[in-house]
Amino acid sequence: MATAFATMMAMPAVPLAPHVTPVDDLVRLRAALGSGAPRILVKRDDLLSFGLGGNKVRKMQTVAAEARATGADTLITAGGLQSNHCRVTAATGAALGMHVVLVLSGEPPASPTANTRLDRLFGAEIRFVPSRAERVSTMAAVADELRAAGRHPFVVPIGASTPTGALGFARGVVELSAAGVRPDEIVHATSTGGTQAGLVAGCALVGLSARVIGVSADEPAPALQKIVAALIEGIADRLGARPETVGADRPIEVADDQVGDGYGVPTAASTEALELFARREGLLLDPVYTAKAAAGMLARIRSGEFTHGQTVLFWHTGGQVAFFQ
């Protein structure tokens, strides 16, 4: 384990956000949930000091270093019109002097707002495709086009959810451990699996026994579990470690009970969670990811699954730009 940990920490990374994010104690939220509620902490990755923050920044620090090592001069990635990942990729290109091409699914907006507006501000070139199904093939076609023009593109998979990207997130668990925070439960929003794989691997590598629960924003639990498992296997290969060293023997817990009518569609529970966090703590969630994850956490507290003697950490993965669509 020590060798795998050292290998992870020695991985090249671009220091996009070199500052540690705080862990806050949500005292008023706990009080609102009654005497049986656990201690509730929040890891404020929404405050990561780059490109308006969020979990994609941790991933892009290692993925961008990987791209630079190949001699790339262009980053290509994809997402929805309001993709947080695309916003962070665009900002990364601006910071590193690299061209960025974003493949966004949906109709071109008459007036770009929120993340799409920021994509343009950061200087990204945007290609629109009608549906999600066309994004991967379009990225490949753009890469071929750029190679033919003498450029050196690097395709970043959606969400930067690769073993390298997940290891970038795993280093966030090292940050948590160094601060002496050892929760019993970690709850976060999951969609493309990289954040959850990073959390599981990070906990295994620092000896943290916390249960990691990913609350899905869109995908069914079995599909996400397979993705996370594959990423953890890839992390083991990347580190030259046994799979169990990076958490392959731990349960992969994905809750899809908060998806509702689908991606980006609020539910009554997610709206209540968003308002409760805002009105009790002055803490802003986002309506796509973290509000649903918070709803999942609240449901488990209210059902008694998380108990008074425990410490639950909510990993805030950002995304509040969605409020400005």
Poorly predicted runs of 5 or more residues: none
Helix content estimate? 40-55%
Would you report the number of β strands? 10
Q: What is the distance, rounded to the nearest whole angstrom, between the alpha carbons of the first and last residues? A: 45 Å
What's the Cα radius of gyration? 19 Å
Mean pLDDT score: 97
What percent strand?
15-25%
Which strand order do you get reading across the main beta sheet? 1-2-10-7-8-9
Number of helices: 11
Q: How does the overall form come out from the CA principal axes?
A: globular
Structural class by sheet pairing and helices: alpha/beta
One letter per element, helices H and strands E, the order comes to HEHEHEHEHEHEHEHEHEHHE
How does the SSE layout of this entry go?
Elements: H1 2-10, E1 23-25, H2 27-32, E2 39-44, H3 55-69, E3 74-80, H4 84-96, E4 99-105, H5 114-121, E5 125-129, H6 135-148, E6 153-155, H7 163-178, E7 185-190, H8 194-206, E8 211-216, H9 221-239, E9 253-255, H10 268-281, H11 290-302, E10 311-316
Parallel strand pairs: 2-10, 3-4, 3-6, 4-5, 7-8, 7-10, 8-9
Antiparallel strand pairs: 1-2
Helix pairs in contact: 3-4, 3-7, 4-5, 7-8, 7-9, 8-9, 10-11
Structural features, described:
Strands 1-2-10-7-8-9 form a six-stranded mixed sheet. Strands 5-4-3-6 form a four-stranded parallel sheet, with helices on both faces. The chain starts with a helix and ends in a 9-residue tail after the last strand. The protein contains eleven helices and ten strands. It is globular. Helix 5 links the parallel strand 4 and strand 5. By secondary structure, the protein is α/β, with parallel strands linked by helices. Helix 3 crosses helix 7.
